[in-house]
Specification:
Helices cover 43% and strands 7% of the residues. It has seven helices and three strands; from the N terminus they run H-H-E-E-H-H-H-H-E-H.
């Protein structure tokens, strides 16, 4: 019969269990502390100030200036990003990770995105145009999809005004007076 001393083996097992228990207990204490320690509160002063810009009409050429590459006087030199959907211009600057230069949807920056979003098209040749696009050739499903995108943008981004083919007289005369 082989004589095995069982006590050293049990001692080693007990030491391992004790170490594991100490580690588990420490983790539990840390987690409970984090659970009951209040998180620092964020005040309105901690948030970036949103630029106050009056609603106005935008033409296609004016919209092109808000492509995320050109500094904007209205935005205190920030490179603002606007896009239009179904005739409404949105300030999507805070979504620059989506619409900024080099991002997945950058083709819509400074453009009317109605056609591209309505057709779920990201091809720069077919999704956007540098000229006025009335999107009359979109079918009912595509128009509905574009309208859903517009409604989604209404919940997320500030509206800067309507996209127009030509400015109305009062807005056009006010712009020309301010330029003088």
């Amino acid at each position: 019969m082989v004589d095995i001393d069982i006590y050293p083996i049990l001692g080693a097992v007990w030491e391992e269990c004790s170490l594991i228990n100490v580690i588990l207990f420490t983790l539990i204490v840390i987690l409970v502390k984090q659970l009951f320690t209040p998180a620092p509160s964020i005040t309105a002063a901690d948030l970036p100030k949103e630029v106050q810009i009056p609603v106005r009409e935008y033409t296609v050429s004016e919209l092109r200036q808000f492509d995320g590459l050109t500094p904007s006087k209205e935005h205190r030199g920030e490179k603002a990003i606007y896009l239009a959907v179904s005739g409404t211009v949105f300030d999507v600057t805070r979504g620059k990770s989506f619409y900024g230069p080099g991002s997945a949807y950058s083709i819509f920056a400074g453009r009317d995105a109605t056609r591209g979003l309505g057709r779920m098209d990201l091809n720069p040749e077919t999704a956007v145009s540098d000229d006025w696009d009335d999107c009359e050739d979109l079918d009912a499903t595509e128009r509905s999809t574009a309208a859903e995108w517009r409604d989604s943008f209404m919940q997320k981004y500030p509206v800067r005004g309507p996209l127009v083919q030509t400015k109305s007289e009062p807005a056009a005369s006010a712009t020309s007076k301010s330029a003088e």
